[in-house]
Design goal:
Blueprint: E1 2-4, E2 10-18, E3 21-29, H1 33-54, H2 62-69, E4 75-76, H3 79-94, E5 116-119, E6 124-127, H4 140-154, E7 159-164, E8 168-172, E9 181-183, E10 186-188, E11 191-197, E12 219-225, H5 228-240, H6 243-252, E13 257-262
Antiparallel strand pairs: 1-2, 2-3, 3-7, 4-6, 5-6, 7-8, 8-11, 9-10, 11-12, 12-13
Helix pairs in contact: 1-4, 4-5
EC number: 2.7.1.180
Cofactor: Mg(2+)
InterPro entries: ApbE (IPR024932), ApbE-like_sf (IPR003374)
Length: 265
C-alpha cells in the first residue's frame, strides 16, 4: 500500500512472511513507489538468504549441515555464518554464560559451549565431542534487523519501521507526523527493540543455561539498543538469567533500556 503526501514524500506499507514470522515494513521517503518496492524485495531476499544459511530447523541449511558433521571433521563456514557464531561465543562470556547457543545439545551442561572451536585461519568450526548443536534462534532475528538496517542505509531510506513478529523491531528516523516511532508506548529513534519471554505458562521456548530446562513464568523482557543483534542476545540472556545474574547484567549494560513485564493471561 502506497500513499503520496502533499509534501512529496511517499509512505509505503508492505508485509510478508519470513523466518517463521510476519514481517511488517513501513518506509517513509521521497522515493517513488517503485523504488520503495525494490527496497522491500531487497529485504525479503536478504531474509530468505539468512534463513537458508542459519535456520536450525531446516535440514538443508548451512547451520544444520554444521551440526551434523562438525564433530566428524572441521567444517569451513561461509564468512557470514562464521562471524555470527564468533559473536555469539564472545557474548557467552559477556553475559555471564546466560546466552548460550549450545543449550539444545545432547547431554547439555554449562561447559558444552567449550566444545565449539572456531579457526580464524580458515573460518572453520569443529565440535570436540558428539551431540553438540549450535542454535542461533535466540539471535537470528536481531541479526536480521542489522542486515535490514544496512540495506536501508544503502538505499538511503532515512525513515522506516520494521516489525518482525512484534518481538524484533527496528525504528529509523521519524514517523511522518512525529519524532521517532512509538512501539508499545516505547519511543524509538534510530534504535531496536527486542523482546524475549513466554506469553503464557504453556508456550515456553527459552532454555536456561543453568540446568538445561525451559524457563518458567509468563513474562517478557524487552531491551532497547542501537544494535539489534546485541539487543537480541541481551534480551535472551536477561530472560534466562536468575535474579542475581539479571541484576549484574543490567549493571554491565546500564546504557541499554530494559523493560520487564508480566504477561496477563
Amino acid at each position: 500500500m502506497y500513499k503520496l503526501s502533499h509534501e512529496g514524500s511517499g509512505l509505503l506499507y508492505a508485509w510478508f512472511l519470513s523466518m517463521h514470522t510476519r514481517v511488517d515494513i513501513i518506509l517513509y521517503s521521497k522515493k517513488t513507489e517503485g523504488e520503495l518496492l525494490f527496497v522491500v524485495n531487497y529485504i525479503y531476499d536478504a531474509l530468505c538468504r539468512l534463513e537458508k544459511m542459519a535456520n536450525f530447523y531446516n535440514p538443508a541449511s548451512e547451520l544444520a549441515y554444521v551440526n551434523r558433521t562438525a564433530f566428524v571433521s572441521p567444517v569451513v563456514l561461509s564468512e557470514e555464518l562464521y562471524s555470527m557464531i564468533d559473536l555469539c561465543l564472545e557474548y557467552n562470556g559477556k553475559t555471564l554464560g546466560c546466552f548460550d547457543i549450545t543449550v539444545h545439545s545432547e547431554n547439555y551442561n554449562q561447559n558444552t559451549i567449550q566444545s565449539v572451536h572456531l579457526s580464524a585461519e580458515d573460518h572453520s568450526i569443529y565440535f570436540s565431542r558428539p551431540g553438540v548443536a549450535v542454535n542461533l534462534s535466540g539471535f537470528l532475528k536481531g541479526y536480521a534487523l542489522e542486515t535490514i538496517k544496512s540495506i536501508l542505509n544503502e538505499c538511503v531510506i532515512e525513515n522506516a519501521l520494521i516489525n518482525m513478529g512484534n518481538s524484533s523491531v527496528l525504528a529509523l528516523g521519524n514517523h511522518p507526523v512525529g519524532t521517532g516511532w512509538k512501539v508499545n508506548n516505547i519511543l524509538l529513534h534510530n534504535e531496536c527493540l527486542t523482546t524475549s519471554g513466554n506469553d503464557s505458562p504453556e508456550r515456553r521456548h527459552i532454555v536456561s543455561p543453568r540446568d538445561g530446562k525451559l524457563v518458567e513464568g509468563a513474562r517478557q523482557i524487552s531491551v532497547v539498543t542501537t544494535n539489534g543483534a546485541i539487543g537480541e542476545i541481551l534480551s535472551t540472556a536477561l530472560f534466562a538469567a536468575d535474579g542475581e545474574q539479571r541484576k549484574a547484567l543490567m549493571g554491565i549494560y546500564a546504557h541499554c533500556r530494559v523493560y520487564i513485564s508480566t504477561v496477563l493471561y
